[in-house]
Amino acid sequence: MAGTFAQNFLDGELRIGCSNLVASAVSGNGQVRGVLLTCPNGPAFAISPPWDIGRDIPFLYAAPFFSPPPGLLGLYLFDYTAPACPTAIQYRPLFVNMTQGLGGTAGSQFFNSCAIVNSTAGTIGGFNIKWLLTHGAISFSPPSFMLSSHNTTVMAGQNATVVLTATSLHGFNGTVIFNVSVSQPSPSMYFIPTFLFRPQSVVLNAPGSNQTLVTIKVPRGSTPGNYTLHFIADPVNDLVHYGDFSASTIYPRAKSDSYILVT
User: Alpha-carbon distance 61 to 206, whole Å?
Assistant: First the structure.
């Protein structure tokens, strides 16, 4: 992890505890492992408020820039007093090439890092983090995709079709798989359709899009009315890429709701 010390006396300071973090405690849930990254003699990072907290000046922000090696699924900062990575990994995620790391604070804060890796991964490659000091957060949109659909009408006992379109956003490349659930306006209404996706998954290449055709088989005797179809698209990458596990705050799931009118 690159860097030794950075300071700005007007806007506060960021201290990097050591140039090479040490891996220690390991925790996990069977799917992923959390590896505690800290310094031998203290926290990995410390950020302090401005010296003159009463002045109307911007807070210090520290923006991390790094390229994750294969097998690194997430990188987070959390309270350095914790003995191991927290079980719910939701605290201060470090996104690839953005801020969302150390922000303005009204009191000193101290952090260690938690690296999330695949539970079956062996040794992963090292990586460097470079910190950029700024007066405000740097906006960033992680790789993801969007899903669009349309409404349809069908008679009971007939079939309907819906076209789902998945579109790559912010450089997303990979395979996405589709699924669906149904909401009924009333428990007394009968509507149990079956769905056929052709195909069930598609490949997205940035900056393009891809489609699947959904055939909806509506059984005879279905109660007439409007029903909501909740379409979902998930990435298929087998816990390989950064942010692709479901607990990640940048997990790129996409959703789209459509209405089907049964007559």
Answer: 31
